[in-house]
């Protein structure tokens, strides 16, 4: 496998992008999960689908779009979707969760229309939906690197504010933190990670990489920082094992990565159950 | 003479069509321990939210430490403790130490790390609420009363001049409520922290506070607790409803 990575450019791109996503998706995912925003990741991934499908359709009829990486329109749609979700959450103050199904349906709706209009990109589409080892270009890798720099800078700079906001948003506002702006930037960064991750994991499974490693880490960690560390370890393990198995068995990496993360979650749950039983036994 | 820590003038507030506060004016002076009393829906929490700048009044003005609240920059001077059940995200994977250190976020400032003294600051705040043994415990493992003490430590860690508390004893069992109020009284007395607290525990707090404000959309009484204790049951019932009456304690007080 190592030889193959050194031999083939596409494998270097896929593993490079995968390793980066294995860090940034669970890292941001910790904040998404503790803020109970997991479904927003799903809504944004479907909006990204609309952007990608739109770009693929336009590339057939408009010259400018034929040279454009569909990821750019995907990113634009995802960021636009995150802004719209915020506007809708403000509009429906007492039913904030309504924003999610509205944007999710809009994403699928537009996506379906563009897919029907455009003919002949079923292979591309399959890759975007479930991820692909072979389709990650050097340009995709560079986009992922750029997104990772933005995400890491955002989290390092605003870590303490994000922590306070995630734990208790009313307290964050009362203590004078710019909660509204930090939340807005958080949504934009989430949109970027979703758009950047979907080349590897696929649109339909991208939110899983942001939530399942975190779900596993939360069961065994004792502190917030430990939750972040374990989430990244579980995320990376899922990406590496998932990409290797996808390469050898010619499977969609989105599927293998997510199934690996589910297996890890099951192992953690079993471990936790045994640990609790042993502890109870020791006390008794 | 120092400016009042809070000075409210002619404040009104409505939730859509419903009037929550009507022409409220009041001052909180340095060193006060003020209990804001009132029945459910009387506007107590709304008034606190206006003091904290969480919501804007439809009319009137508010000064904090002598400065118009719109221009007030030192939010870290005001510690806030909310109703536990309303606010914090239960099950959150964090240690008590991490939660309390979060209280330093505003004081440290944007784009800056927490100060190097964070461990000592957190320990000192935890000592003042008698919880120093719980630093490395998970916040979700603690009882309601312990969690509320941790939230007071989080408010204290930035060394505020004033604490604003919204029904801080909600979720605390009856036996621990007395000890909780004793701890607040000690903070007021020994650390000279001004306290503004919304509460329903009229009789439990009266011995420990200095001032009382009675609110039901408008201020019906604001003054020293000794004056409040002289109010008759009829006077209290006229604004509070019939559920509040004086309890005569064995010591002859009210």
From TrEMBL, chain A:
Descriptive protein name: Metal ABC transporter permease
InterPro entries referenced in this protein's UniProt entry, alphabetically: ABC_BtuC-like (IPR037294), ABC_TroCD (IPR001626)
Membrane-protein topology: Multi-pass membrane protein
Domain of life the protein comes from: Bacteria
Keywords in alphabetical order: Membrane, Transmembrane, Transmembrane helix, Transport
Transmembrane intervals: 14-34, 64-86, 98-121, 141-165, 230-249, 255-271
A Gene Ontology biological process term: transmembrane transport
Gene Ontology CC terms, in alphabetical order: ATP-binding cassette (ABC) transporter complex
Subcellular location(s) per record: Cell membrane; Membrane
Keyword Transmembrane helix: yes
Record-stated family: Belongs to the ABC-3 integral membrane protein family.
Gene3D superfamilies noted in UniProt: ABC transporter involved in vitamin B12 uptake, BtuC
TrEMBL record, chain B:
Transferase among keywords: no
Superkingdom of origin: Bacteria
Coiled-coil region list: none
SMART domains per UniProt: AAA (SM00382)
GO molecular function: ATP binding; ATP hydrolysis activity
InterPro entries reported for this sequence: AAA+_ATPase (IPR003593), ABC_transporter-like_ATP-bd (IPR003439), ABC_transporter-like_CS (IPR017871), Metal_Ion_Import_ABC (IPR050153), P-loop_NTPase (IPR027417)
Domain (ABC transporter) ranges: 6-241
Record family assignment: Belongs to the ABC transporter superfamily.
Protein name: Zinc ABC transporter ATP-binding protein
Natural source organism: Planococcus halotolerans
High-level lineage: Bacteria, Bacillati, Bacillota, Bacilli, Bacillales
């Amino acid at each position: 496998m190592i030889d193959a990575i050194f031999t083939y450019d596409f494998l270097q791109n896929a593993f490079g992008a995968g390793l980066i996503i294995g860090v940034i998706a669970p890292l941001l995912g910790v904040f998404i999960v503790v803020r109970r925003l997991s479904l927003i990741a799903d809504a944004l991934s479907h909006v990204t689908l609309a952007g990608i499908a739109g770009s693929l359709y336009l590339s057939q009829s408009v010259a400018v779009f034929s040279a454009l990486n569909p990821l750019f329109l995907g990113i634009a749609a995802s960021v636009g979707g995150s802004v719209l979700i915020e506007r809708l959450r403000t509009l429906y103050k007492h039913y904030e969760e309504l924003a999610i199904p509205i944007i999710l349906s809009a994403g699928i709706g537009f996506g379906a229309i563009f897919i029907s209009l455009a003919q002949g990109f079923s292979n591309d589409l399959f890759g975007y939906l479930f991820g692909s080892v072979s389709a990650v270009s050097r340009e995709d890798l560079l986009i992922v690197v750029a997104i990772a720099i933005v995400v890491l800078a955002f989290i390092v700079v605003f870590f303490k504010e994000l922590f306070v906001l995630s734990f208790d948003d009313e307290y964050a506002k009362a203590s004078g933190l710019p909660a509204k702006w930090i939340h807005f930037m958080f949504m934009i960064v989430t949109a970027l990670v979703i758009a950047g991750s979907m080349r590897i994991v696929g649109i339909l499974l991208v939110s899983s990489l942001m939530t399942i490693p975190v779900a596993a880490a939360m069961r065994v960690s004792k502190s917030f920082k430990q939750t972040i560390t374990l989430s990244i370890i579980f995320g990376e393990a899922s990406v590496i094992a998932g990409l290797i198995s996808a390469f050898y068995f010619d499977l969609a990496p989105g599927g293998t990565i997510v199934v690996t993360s589910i297996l890890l979650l099951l192992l953690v749950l079993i471990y936790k159950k045994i640990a609790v039983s042993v502890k109870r036994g020791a006390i008794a | 003479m120092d400016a009042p820590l809070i000075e409210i003038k002619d404040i009104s507030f409505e939730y859509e069509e419903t009037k929550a506060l009507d022409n409220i004016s009041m001052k909180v002076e340095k060193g006060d321990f003020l209990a804001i009393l009132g029945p459910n829906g009387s506007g107590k929490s709304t008034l606190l939210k206006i003091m904290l700048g969480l919501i804007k009044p439809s009319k009137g003005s508010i000064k904090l430490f002598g400065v118009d609240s719109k221009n007030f920059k030192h939010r870290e001077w005001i510690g806030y403790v909310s109703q536990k059940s309303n606010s914090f995200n239960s099950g959150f994977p964090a240690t008590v130490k991490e939660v309390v250190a979060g209280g330093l976020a505003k004081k440290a400032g944007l784009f800056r790390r927490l100060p190097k003294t964070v461990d000592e600051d957190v320990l000192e705040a935890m000592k003042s609420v008698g919880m120093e043994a719980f630093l490395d415990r998970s916040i979700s493992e603690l009882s309601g009363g312990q969690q509320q003490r941790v939230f007071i430590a989080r408010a204290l860690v930035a060394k505020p001049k004033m604490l604003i508390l919204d029904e801080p004893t909600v979720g605390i069992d009856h036996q621990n409520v007395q000890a909780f109020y004793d701890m607040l009284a000690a903070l007021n007395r020994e650390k000279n922290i001004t306290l503004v607290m919304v509460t329903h525990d009229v009789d439990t707090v009266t011995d420990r506070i200095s001032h009382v404000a009675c609110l039901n959309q408008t201020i019906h009484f604001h003054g020293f607790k000794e004056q409040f204790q002289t109010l008759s049951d009829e006077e209290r019932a006229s604004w509070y409803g019939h559920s509040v009456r004086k309890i005569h304690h064995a010591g002859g007080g009210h």
